[in-house]
Amino acid sequence: MVMPPVYHPFFLVTQKNEREVVFSPLVLKDEQYYIDFNRFRQDIQGCKLLILSNPHNPGGRVWTKEELSQIADICYESGTLVISDEIHADLTLPPYKHSTFALISEKARMNSLVFMSPSKAFNMPGLGSSYAITVDKGIRERFQTFMEAGEFSEGHLLAYIGAAAAYMHGAEWLEQMLDYIKGNIDFTENYLEEYIPGISMIRPQASYLVFLDCRALGLTQEALTRLFAEKAHLALNDGTMFGVPGEGFMRLNIGCPHSVLEQALKQLRDAVVQ
Question: Is 204 part of any domain?
Fold first, then answer.
């Protein structure tokens, strides 16, 4: 099961492996995403696996301990293994605090597989430095067997060195980067409010990804993507790639120099107000 809008490989890879995907949509309320736990409890029945985006991508939501605890309890009762993708964990913005799923409770600890990587936070994609953590011996053995069967488990030297360097020596850099990202988020929010009233944003609590709410423009998704690509000359992620609830949205990456972001927003303003 997945909770859209959500990182699209979660359901695309599952479908390509000829497995059925259950979609349990998040609820957008007060410009943030929330879990409808009544629906979640119903939808999870019979599911072997929940793929959780923690923090959430594309909305940037940092799930609370209480929310994660409910997920852990429900999935334990239903016999559903939780895979928690926490690749954006180190990009959690103050004052929010990331909670690792496996540390929430004993039920979470014994019924989960946590995926993490330094690649997003420390800007080192391509090194193949992702890793998985699980406490349960049975889960670990099954996962390791799967990884070894596809020869996915052999990292290369730079992956180990890069991950160690990031976690041991990157704290100061990470702190400065998060401050820069927060500045870009503030700038984007203020610019949209002042110059592009037809577009708002879901303010991320984690990550450099901003989900733009363009529904007030009244455009079809096809027209919206053309507006961004052909009029604003910007290449953003189409919101519908994250599932049906992403209709009317576009995902913007603000992890760039402030000057680049400012130019992009000016191009978007000119495209919208024409």
Answer: yes
Six-digit token pair at 13? 């890879």
Measured CA angle at 130 (ends 175, 40), to 5 deg: 90
pLDDT in tens, 248-261: 999 999 999 999 99
> For 17-42, how does the pLDDT look when each residue is reduced to its tens digit (9 = 90+)?
999 999 999 999 999 999 999 999 99
Structural domain span for residue 103: 9-156
Report how many domains make up the chain: 2
Any idea which residue has 């193949």 for tokens? 128
Structural domain contains residue 165: no
Q: Domain end: 116, 131, 156, which one?
A: 156
Closest CA to 37 of 5, 6, 75: 75
Last residue of a domain, one of 99, 124, 156: 156
Q: Are residues 267 and 179 in the same domain?
A: yes
The candidate with the shortest Cα–Cα distance to 228, out of 204, 264, 191, is: 264
Name the pTM for this structure: 0.95
56: three-class secondary structure by DSSP: coil
As averages over each run of 10 residues, the pLDDT of the chain (274 residues) reads 98 95 97 97 98 98 98 98 98 97 97 96 89 95 92 84 95 96 98 96 98 98 98 98 98 98 98 90
